[in-house]
Amino acid sequence: MTAEKLREEFLNYFKSKGHSVVPSSSLLPDDPSVLLTTAGMQQFKPYYTAKADPLSSPHTSLSGKPIGSKNAVSVQKCFRTSDIDEVGDETHLTFFEMLGNFSFGGYFKEEAINFAYEFLTKKLGITIDYVTVFKGDESVPMDMESENEWNNLGFSKENGNVKFSGREDNFWGPTGSEGPCGPTTEIYIKSMPESGQSTEIWNIVFNEYYSNKDKTLERLKNPGVDTGMGLERLAMVSQEVKNIFETDLFGPILSLIPKNMPERIRRIVADHARGAVFLLADGILPSNKEAGYILRRLLRRIIVHEDMSSDGAAGHSGYGFNIHLIMEKIISEYGSSYPKLISQKQIILDEFEKEREKFSKTLRKGLRELNRIGEINAKSAFYLYESFGLPYEIIKELGEDKAKGLGREEFDSEFDKHREQSRAGKEKKFGGHGLILDTGELKASNEEELKKVTRLHTATHLLQAALRKVLGDNIHQGGSDITAERLRFDFHFERKPSSVELSEVEDLVNRAIEHDLDMGYEEMPYGEAIKTGALYFEKEKYPPNVRVYTAKDSNTGEVFSRELCGGPHVSHTGELKSFKIFKEESVGAGLRRIRATVGEK
User: Fold this and answer.
1) Pick from 50-64, 107-121, 361-375: least confident
2) Which residues pair with 179 in a beta bridge?
3) Is residue 132 within 8 Å of residue 163, measured between CB atoms?
4) I want to staple 521 with a disulfide (CB 3.0 to 4.6 A). Which of 57, 108, 122, 547 is the partner?
5) DSSP assignment of 109-167, as one string?
């Protein structure tokens, strides 16, 4: 069965079982504890912890609409960097698709296990080899309910098709530093009928606990179900091939990469190109920090191999490939399932070309320097990265015997040390003193600067409200940064606003300033605040009780803006004096940036 058909069958099956079909969320999560979306359940975390109600509370990662059911199903785009050094073997990937069914108090272990059994054996005709169950430990008891349910389906310890494991294998979560977690039961299937090896195909998690940052566990009031089945692995067993790279998910991509290349390199190029396309489509741009740094590493690794293969360098003689064509193939192959790839195609290709052009200026010099250096340690590796842009993976890959003593942890430690030094230098430069305010978004080094950033911060509230009034309610914040000189506001929007629209936005903000609106706040529970329609930043983690700031006309009661926020604000909008947009630009696929100032007092 094709991968496209497997996606369809999975969604249709669970839809028939009373699940609401929810689209994949972005690879940029609204969970601040993680850098990228690593699991299908991440967009649903507020439902497991009762911070949001799937029946009535809109949750912006779900397009601002309630699920309408206690049960959901999705095919989620995921990205994990933990195994990036292993990519190139037969099982590891960076980007992958996770098929998942979820329940937020609607059903539990009996139904979840029976759904999985029926879908695999009845719908797909796949034979389950064996299953695993949590054996328990000093803080969490053995999962006897799951064992009993598998017994009812003909699986048992005596038959050898029920096995027991501890936390390392059969306890999942949380995603990030804290969140829902619990015991799991896993399903294993022989990758090929004649093969003696079995592959873990489906992980069914029973979220019974909440893991705090200190790793202590608390029982959830409403336990839920969170399952994940990798599409690539399901395709492998369904199509009866030896590994994930022989499935139809990778066949068309690998057909554009010469077969006389080392197989490991072919797989790295295919994986990294696929991952890069999806990251670019979600608005992530190459940079030296956070998600942009991950994207840059992927792109530069495949650019190096493309460059080397083009002139026969390092034993690559006799073949060449074109990343641009590979990316176009990925977009065409996945476009029907992920239409955003089609709509963002030109942006994806243009941003790749920009990165290739930027990197090509130092690439050859970097490779020569790599060959010149004797032993490569963390310091020399960081020098190659900082001076020539060579990522760790390429240094390790091409350094051969010289980099044997270089490890990922040592390199990352050196990277972090230099980043801290750079940050300290910037903070010293900012006002020439230590900062009296540094929330990440707002920075001020003295009382005078604090007054300025307070006015600019208030202006971001008015700006977002004005953008939504002019461009539509689909506008959502993508980030912000405020210094004493200006505000920077990022927002999600698929096209460039016209000069007329930007002028209208500017006029609306200035009108709000002229009317000297009250800027007051109320404290209330988070759930109640969301119900008021107040805007909030998806990536922010809010406390149980929050402040809702409202800019409104004291005479008419008309509300201009309402937003969850904990930062400093003026008491009346007239304190801003005036508002001026001085730059608007694209910073990624579907992500725009405005820089603006307010008038002097």
Assistant:
1) 50-64
2) 211
3) yes
4) 547
5) HHHHHHHHHHIIIIIS-PPP-EEEEE---SSS---HHHHHHHHHTT--TTTT-EEEE-H
Kindly calculate the radius of gyration of the chain based on its CA atoms and give it in whole angstroms: 26
443-598 to CATH, choices 3.30.980.10, 3.40.640.10, 3.40.1000.10, 2.60.120.260:
3.30.980.10
* Residue, of 566 and 310, whose pLDDT is higher: 566
Which residues have CB under 8 Å from 478's CB, separation 6+? Answer: 283, 490, 491, 492, 591
Spatial distance between the Cα atoms of 396 and 301, rounded to a whole number of angstroms = 11
Tokens of 469: 């009034």
- List the domain boundaries for the chain: 3-239, 250-357, 373-429, 443-598
Question: Which residue's entry shows tokens 């010293």?
Answer: 428
In three-state secondary structure terms, 5 is: helix
412-463 pLDDT, tens digit per residue, is 888 888 766 655 544 443 333 354 455 555 667 777 888 888 899 999 999 9
Instruction: For tokens 């390092």, name the residue.
Output: 314
Alpha carbons 558 and 456: distance in angstroms, whole number: 22
Give the pair of three-digit tokens for residue 80: 């994990």
At 87-125, the pLDDT tens digits run 999 889 999 999 999 999 999 999 999 999 999 999 999
Cis status, amide bond into 180, omega within 30 of 0:
no
Task: List phi, psi (to 5°) of 22.
Answer: -115, 130
CATH value of 3-239 in 3.40.190.10, 3.30.930.10, 3.40.640.10, 3.40.50.2300: 3.30.930.10
CB neighbour list of residue 401: distance below 8 Å, 6 or more residues apart: none
* Residue 63 near residue 99 (C-beta atoms within 8 A): no
Q: Token digits for 101?
A: 């069914």
Residue 319 has pLDDT above 70, yes or no: no
Q: Which residues contact 517 (CB under 8 A, 6 or more apart)?
A: 551, 552, 553, 554, 560, 572, 573, 574
